[in-house]
């Protein structure tokens, strides 16, 4: 698509970096407060330090539009698609110009780490997603480097296909906004329109030792890519190092389970998060011996399973689901196993990382009559 086909690009406001917030708990995305390609570890100094229970506003930038194979020049990249220079994020420009990209790791830019004072290994870090606000009215879906679900088929022509996606009606709110793609290149008059559901693909805590790990997911979180993590949900992460070292990134406007082309609709978000600590003894009493991240939404309890082998990832998810049902509701393992088979969807989070992801959606409403432990929000 050409610039003339897309202009004017936006009616929605562009959210450039803030100078401050009312309470000062704001973490911008700068070359100094982000890591690019790898995840924070114990040796990384906190970019921000907060008390448990604090609300934090965090700006994220997308790797799409700033990567080397896209020219590492977001003004030029987005300008070719009709975006005026004033509508390109200043922090994306700064990270592209001055950020260090460890290309042995991955593409993602993450903001952090955030120290949560008093958090210790064995605790759970509870990260409530209060709000996720799109910062621009456009994004990108890319397939590259022979990766994705169908690496032998896509990209069709060359090592990279980056599909620019404009977002319509964002100024009217997320319910009205739609991502749009044409049926054929150069045919903007017949768009495919799909709803937005913003979430952060990377949410995690720092790992022990001096080595920064690559972005594929693990017990620490990382690139978990669970699209259920929209505003109003809570992610529980096993703390690995003192202070936790929370980081977030890989912002999405929308994603299908599986994320088969390698990326989904990648675009920057401003996140408001409330961070709290569940002490180790309390965590064990509430949730048992669950390994790895898990999620609580308004409708579901969501265990995860992570492994390079997708079959093993689903098996791990199943074991964690049985463990959660026993710890939270006192359900016998055989009965939990039967219930999960009859009533719970096991889904593929993503298949494009080295480590594959699965998650299950356990309906909270099914246990409304059970007089057991209340699952905290």
UniProtKB/TrEMBL annotation:
<dbReference type="GO" id="GO:0016811">
    <property type="term" value="F:hydrolase activity, acting on carbon-nitrogen (but not peptide) bonds, in linear amides"/>
</dbReference>
<dbReference type="InterPro" id="IPR004304">
    <property type="entry name" value="FmdA_AmdA"/>
</dbReference>
<dbReference type="Pfam" id="PF03069">
    <property type="entry name" value="FmdA_AmdA"/>
</dbReference>
<protein>
    <submittedName>
        <fullName>Formamidase</fullName>
    </submittedName>
</protein>
